[in-house]
Design a protein that fits this description.
Number of domains: 1
Radius of gyration: 16 Å
Distance between the termini: 31 Å
Oligomer: single chain
Strand content: 15-25%
Strand order of the largest sheet: 1-8-7-6-5-4-3-2
CATH topology: TIM Barrel
CATH architecture: Alpha-Beta Barrel
Structural class: alpha/beta
Order of helices and strands: EHEHEHEHEEHEHEHH
CATH superfamily: Aldolase class I
Shape: globular
């Protein structure tokens, strides 16, 4: 799937083009001195979309990049830009992110306990609207809004830094979200982010994850294309690699 627009972007429930899982390399782990090469490498290596982690040094204790860098990434690729706003006040920047070329914007329920308005604003810009929750946050916090989102992102590490170890206790939340999706016939895509590699991808998809965000496991691998294949294959198997 290539990038969307207000005229062509899919409606809720059609973010995933056919068989899951998608593999979404996280640009946070790329070599920023060779950003265009890094994007081309994972696109040619079979990435389904790119995951862009925007951090504001307030919601999380790190500062990454904003619309200017995303605009440069947009010029390098037609891949779907899945943009994760780890920000206290992302509503102030929605239009710049849209103009930069993002295809989807995900905000945190911890920043917006009632996110209905900002989800409508994101949709109004012609983008896919996502909602994320941190490891300590219960699925109950997002349950009232599941009918209004295109994507639910479950964090499997505490957000703020790349390269952290996977937290297996979050799988119960993925299972709960997947159960609600089936029970109510909802169309959001279910994404997991944090510590995903060939050894954890199978457990994540067995719990119900459909999009696997992987940073270090892809960009710091000797063979990034091989790493993408291994993560996808492990995810498709529904069990950890080697099990």
């Amino acid at each position: 799937m290539t990038r969307g627009s207000s005229d062509t972007a899919p409606a809720a429930g059609t973010l995933l083009p056919g068989a899951a899982p998608w593999v979404a390399p996280s640009l946070l782990s790329a070599d920023f001195s060779r950003l265009a090469d890094a994007v081309a490498m994972v696109e040619q290596g079979g990435a389904d979309c790119l995951h862009l982690d925007v951090m504001d040094a307030h919601f999380v204790p790190n500062l990454t990049f904003g619309p200017v860098v995303i605009g440069a990434v947009r010029r390098c690729t037609s891949l779907f830009l899945d943009t994760h706003l780890m920000m206290t006040e992302p509503h102030r920047y929605l239009e710049p992110f849209a103009k930069a070329g993002c295809d989807g914007l995900t905000v945190h329920v911890e920043a917006y306990p009632d996110p209905r308005e900002i989800l409508r604003e994101i949709r109004g810009l012609g983008l896919r609207a996502g909602l994320s929750l941190n490891p300590p946050t219960d699925v109950a916090a997002v349950e009232p809004f599941l009918e209004e989102i295109d994507l639910l992102l479950v964090m499997s590490v505490n957000p703020g830094f790349g390269g952290q170890a996977f937290m297996p206790e979050v799988l119960a939340k993925v299972e709960r979200a997947a159960g609600l999706k089936r029970e109510h016939g909802l169309g959001f895509a279910l994404e997991i982010d944090g510590g995903i590699d060939p050894g954890t991808a199978g457990a994540a998809t067995a719990a119900g994850a459909e999009i696997l965000v992987a940073g270090s496991a892809v960009f710091r691998a000797p063979d990034p294309a091989g790493a993408i294949r291994a993560i996808r294959e492990a995810g498709a198997s529904g069990r950890p690699a080697g099990a």
